[in-house]
Amino acid sequence: MSNDDPEPLQSLSTTALSPSEVGKLIQTNPPNIEYVQYGISLEPKYLPQMRALIAKDLSEPYSIYVYRYFLYQWPELCFFAVDTTTEDKDLVAVVICKLEKHRGGPLRGYIAMLATKDAYRGKGLAKTLVSKAIDLMIVKDADEIALETEETNVAAMKLYESLGFLRSKKLHRYYLNGNSAYRLLLYLKPGVASMPLDEFYDPYGYGDLPPSAQDDPRYPSGQEDKDDLFSRGII
Ligand SMILES: CC(C)(COP(=O)(O)OP(=O)(O)OC[C@H]1O[C@@H](n2cnc3c(N)ncnc32)[C@H](O)[C@@H]1OP(=O)(O)O)[C@@H](O)C(=O)NCCC(=O)NCCS
């Protein structure tokens, strides 16, 4: 560019941030906390800690197969936070997700599990982890992101609604403890809500169930509500 050329135009809008830029704005970096993207090599050290944290805080019991279903197929969509002041960099918060086509329609990210240790809550760790997962799903061209949460879980509802998730459906007596859930959705592209689904695509949702759940007594063959079956928190 010669000295006579005009200065390149600056963006006229100061508010037009991309979704991932918005994500970075809400991510926090509290002292002594490090965020880590999961990888298979971290399984021996961190999978037991993830299981212990999630087993304590989530009402649904998840077998090792359910963790592996997610972590083997979508390791990069698991993020966790560690406390760097602990000798072994202990895990203090985690999010586990997946990303795949939903009934032959939109590419759907799914947030399966999220928890923060009691002593580390209120510091923005969960919101940061979810935001990192959302950022990566956007990079991977996701159309929408879904999850379920107990209707009584005020902290989770507020967290997700503050990120733009909307309540799409109430799922009565969804959890094993009898509690109902809301399905929350975040649309990432215009027109996704009206994207056609393939009615004949995997009508019972078995293709999306981890092997452990296919024999799970909670899913008696032929009696299930296929929509709820498909969207149970464990798949
Ligand atoms: C829900 C949970 C993961 C939040 O973890 P956290 O690290 O404390 O959350 P953050 O500090 O990132 O909070 C982010 C937002 O969530 C909301 N929030 C978090 N805790 C809240 C509480 N106790 N009451 C109301 N809102 C709360 C707030 O909107 C907060 O944003 P703000 O601080 O700007 O107001 C944590 O409470 C937890 O592990 N609960 C048990 C497991 C669980 O319910 N998991 C979710 C399953 S869907």
TrEMBL record:
<dbReference type="GO" id="GO:0120518">
    <property type="term" value="F:protein N-terminal-methionine acetyltransferase activity"/>
</dbReference>
<dbReference type="InterPro" id="IPR044542">
    <property type="entry name" value="NAA30-like"/>
</dbReference>
<dbReference type="GO" id="GO:0031417">
    <property type="term" value="C:NatC complex"/>
</dbReference>
<dbReference type="Pfam" id="PF00583">
    <property type="entry name" value="Acetyltransf_1"/>
</dbReference>
<keyword id="KW-0012">Acyltransferase</keyword>
<keyword id="KW-0808">Transferase</keyword>
<comment type="similarity">
    <text>Belongs to the acetyltransferase family. MAK3 subfamily.</text>
</comment>
<feature type="region of interest" description="Disordered">
    <location>
        <begin position="208"/>
        <end position="235"/>
    </location>
</feature>
<dbReference type="InterPro" id="IPR000182">
    <property type="entry name" value="GNAT_dom"/>
</dbReference>
<protein>
    <submittedName>
        <fullName>N-alpha-acetyltransferase 30</fullName>
        <ecNumber>2.3.1.256</ecNumber>
    </submittedName>
</protein>
<feature type="domain" description="N-acetyltransferase">
    <location>
        <begin position="33"/>
        <end position="189"/>
    </location>
</feature>
<dbReference type="InterPro" id="IPR016181">
    <property type="entry name" value="Acyl_CoA_acyltransferase"/>
</dbReference>
